[in-house]
Amino acid sequence: MPDLLTTTRKRLNLDSRPMQLWRKAKSLGTWDPAAIDFSQDAKDWAGCSDREQDLLLRLTAQFEAGEESVTRDLLPLLLYMSRHGRIEDEMFLTAYLWEEAKHVEGFHRFLDEVIGTEDDLDSYLTPAYRTLFTERLPDAMDALHTNGDPATLARACATYQIIVEGTLAETGYGAYRAVLKERNLCPGIRELVTYVQRDEARHVAYGIHLLTSLIEEHDSVVWPVIETALSDGLALVTEHIHETLSPYTAPYPFDITPDLFVSMGMSQFEKRLSALESARP
Q1: For residue 263, what are the CA distances in angstroms to 123, 172, 241, 260?
Q2: Is 27 contained in some domain?
Q3: Among residues 32, 35, 154, 275, which is most buried (max CB within 10 A)?
Q4: Is residue 62 one of the residues assigned to a domain?
Q5: Domain enclosing residue 165, as ranges
Q6: What is the CATH number of the domain that holds 128?
Q7: How confident is the model at residue 232 (pLDDT cuts 50, 70, 90)?
Q8: What pLDDT digit, counting tens, does each position of 137-182 carry?
Q9: pTM for the full model?
Q10: If 0-12 CB within 10 Å is exposed, 13-18 middle and 19+ buried, where does residue 87 land?
């Protein structure tokens, strides 16, 4: 067991990045998914065309499955920090895990109370999506159980925070919310996505903090691993976007085109990549 910190002279590092994010999580992350009003959303859903309903259902199913996956797969990182005596990181990660669980509840409510479907929605999960969420993400995170070297941590963070959250999720949520706001539809789900995006911004910031620290200390070891994880992950995100919109033909529902989605995804990815490259010696 690592030495205890809070009763020694070392104490907590209140100025550390994890503690800064912990304080933000306490003040900004206390929203309740059960308190969101979806009554207008149900009316707006009924007024959408069949194609619009299908796309909204498809995206919501992907959000719900993705939030479940990241909730399930975050624990190895929390345990890693606990084993290494990084109490500040562990404190933030408890909020992080709690927030991911709330995202699952929020999208589940929308599926149940607005869309009202009891169908199996697995058909909406594309082959690229399944590769990312059932192979790449759990493999990268589970490796933390047995391997604590910098390269393993770098691969886990690059996959989880940069690809899954910082590129795929941010792209999907951004497009989803913008389309509904532009048409003044579904205020409840827009409120939910606003909360989710605010949470995810903290999560991505934490991942960038971990990766930049690793780059500054172990660049020659971790940068090739990061590059591979980002390159492979971006390819899956792009493939997933095209697979998601392949059932539709122009004019696309809500004018969401593959090019629009890919452009938004690349913008998010390049922003994260730039932050990591700036940390290199």
Answers
A1: 25, 12, 11, 5
A2: no
A3: 154
A4: yes
A5: 33-277
A6: 1.10.620.20
A7: very high
A8: 999 999 999 998 999 999 999 999 999 999 999 999 988 988 899 9
A9: 0.94
A10: buried
